[in-house]
Automatic annotation (TrEMBL), chain A:
Keyword Transport: yes
Domain ABC transporter residue range list: 23-253
Name of the protein described by the UniProt record: Daunorubicin resistance protein DrrA family ABC transporter ATP-binding protein
Superkingdom in the source lineage: Bacteria
Topology class, membrane: Peripheral membrane protein
Organism of derivation: Nocardioides phosphati
Record Pfam families: ABC_tran
Automatic annotation (TrEMBL), chain B:
Membrane topology of this protein: Multi-pass membrane protein
Residue ranges annotated for the ABC transmembrane type-2 domain, each copy included: 46-284
Keywords, sorted A to Z: Antibiotic resistance, Cell membrane, Membrane, Transmembrane, Transmembrane helix, Transport
Compartments, as annotated in UniProt: Cell membrane; Membrane
Basic and acidic residues bias locations: 7-21
Protein's UniProt name: Transport permease protein
Organism (species): Nocardioides phosphati
Secreted keyword on record: no
Family, as annotated: Belongs to the ABC-2 integral membrane protein family.
Renumbered residue ranges of the record's region Disordered: 1-22
Chain segments annotated as transmembrane: 47-66, 86-104, 125-150, 162-182, 194-211, 263-281
Main location: membrane
Amino acid sequence: MPLSVGVASVVIMTTTRGAGLAIEADGLVKRFGDNLAVDGVSFGVPQGTVLGLLGPNGAGKTTTVRMMTTLTMPTAGTARVAGFDVRQHPGEVRARLGLTGQAATVDELLTGRENLRMIGSLYGLPRAEVKRRSDELLERFSLTEAAGRIAKGYSGGMRRRLDLAVSLIAHPPVLFLDEPTTGLDPRSRVELWEVLRDLVREGTTLLLTTQYLEEADHLADDIVVIDRGTVIAQGTPLQLKDAAGKASIVVTVSHAADLDEAERLVRASVPELHVDPAARQITAAANGLADMTRIAALFADSAIELDDLGLKRPSLDDVFLHLTGHRAEDETAATGQPEEALA
Amino acid sequence: MTLDQTGHPEARPSLEPEGGLHRGGLLRQSLVITRRNLTHIKRMPEMLLDVTIQPVMFVLLFAYVFGSSIPTDSPSGYREWLLGGIMGQTITFSSFIVALGLTADLDKGIVDRMRSLPINPAAVLVGRSISSLIHSSIGLVVMSLTGLVVGWRIRGSLLDALLGYLLLIAWGFAMIWVGILVGSAMRSVEAVNGLMFATMFPITFLANTFAPTDKMEPWLRAIAEWNPISSLVQSVRQLWGNDPDGVPASAAYPLHHPEVATLIWVVVITLVMAPLALRAFRKRTST
């Protein structure tokens, strides 16, 4: 069930934006024994944009990132980062990328500051430069106060921030983040999103993997959906949502007594609807904005008081369900135990 | 090849790494990692138990529990004779130290983090090796001090004494490769512990470390005397003047030329283990 927004959109993206591709995956394949973890993944990320690599657990996201960051050799196909082939010039690729892995790989026995300085020294930055950048990043990620404490005692959010800060010590132009917000509380997640947006504003090209549709929706310019090692859709968040189905109009009345009258009004223009008495809500399949404005006018002329009237587009979760037949965050589907998913 | 001429006005003008990124060599990178490993010891001094309390306990246990019933020809008895054995065992366990540290770093993703940096991939191993040798050397110092307390003395020349220590360090170097092999092959710290206890421990006992070999059953004696650790321990005892009568004429060939035998063992073990270890490390880290 591939969408119309297929591989062709990559070409469109490159030509319309004018910038070069900072990251390219070209038919990447990775086989572990009998298991084909990644099976021919291709996409491109224009410079200065964000690509969300979306998929459930076990879809091949991490393996794809590992191949693009020179940690794992592709079985077939290749990838280029900043124009350099990961197979032929891994050193050049490493000099241009920052990587934050799935588990926050900070050194637990070093302090926050020591973590930054160690990686800075490994890059071969001059000592004074390492010191200056470390302090700068600690400040930026609100870690200055904790800088002298060993990372073992950091909260999950602090570890993630430190891990990201460490990836940025040499100002890499291309950044790979593998599930950067997994396990974070909602507030830390939103804070991290803010930081990532800032980085992109400054020109960093970002590839992030996520199983949170909300996250891809918030951050990504383009989304590549992968499932069982293959790309099943790609496009902008809007394109994917449009492809998944129509938008719907949601009417919420203020008083339950008005619900029947409201239903009659809506049905007059949109016969296909669903009433949820408990939520005092009517959901109707809309044919674009025309239906929306007509219904709005009808309610404006009536005496019915409304709490809310809105157009609801399908979420990326709906998109995923539509594409794969299972929900993105449904782990049992990914591990192949459908009977448990039903329980 | 590079994309910096494409000049999108809002985008970063370049995909090049920032200026000032002059990469240092393998040695400098290895020393950064060595320093990091030593900071670990500073933060968790209990990591040193294996080269402090443990061998000291061995000295005391063997010296006082078995000491009176094991006859030796050392001037101040079994205790002085024992020390070279414990030293040999302690430095052999540096393989243990390397394996534990490497497995922990692999397990926690630290090695992958290092591998994503523009550094020589060998720096992780060299850094780990240097810090493990320092770790083991701390053990040698602690052992020497403990020895002095229980009556051990160096009775040879200073040069010979230093040569003894150098042989121990050389042996430690060979053991590093064993450690890298085991560390790369095992999936958890617990597995390393299990394997090393089941192998290295008996191997260090199946030698002249704690008891003279000439009273052993002939087959056992042959194994013990051909055990490379026996050559090492015999060299150290002779160089420190702790075995004035030397080995009996009936001893196996290597024990009659222990220093040369030790050096040959170091070279052979390194030549065999290093390629295996590097292959195992590459295999572990590239999948």
